[in-house]
Write a structure and sequence with these properties.
With 76 residues, this protein is mostly beta strands. Helices cover 0% and strands 58% of the residues.
């Protein structure tokens, strides 16, 4: 079984963690209007920007940074 993979480009906002941060690309198996991604300083919320860009030989949906959902407490 082959799952459909959606490629998403995270635009703006803090640097995401645990993704290919060289080009801020995330893959997901479902088409979602927004997604939460762990990033520097906590968890950021990105929302689909109704546009696509070409990355390499494929297309990526552009997600714009909205806000921080959960922020790591400041170091004491």
């Amino acid at each position: 079984m082959i799952a459909m993979v959606y490629v998403v480009y995270l635009q703006g906002g803090p640097e995401p963690l645990g993704v290919r941060t060289d080009n801020r690309v995330v893959t997901t198996t479902e088409a979602v209007p927004e997604m939460k991604v762990p990033c520097e300083g906590g968890v950021g919320l990105w929302r689909y920007a109704e546009e696509h860009i070409t990355i390499g030989t494929g297309q990526a949906a552009v997600f714009e940074f909205v806000r921080m959902e959960d922020e790591d407490p400041a170091p004491v």
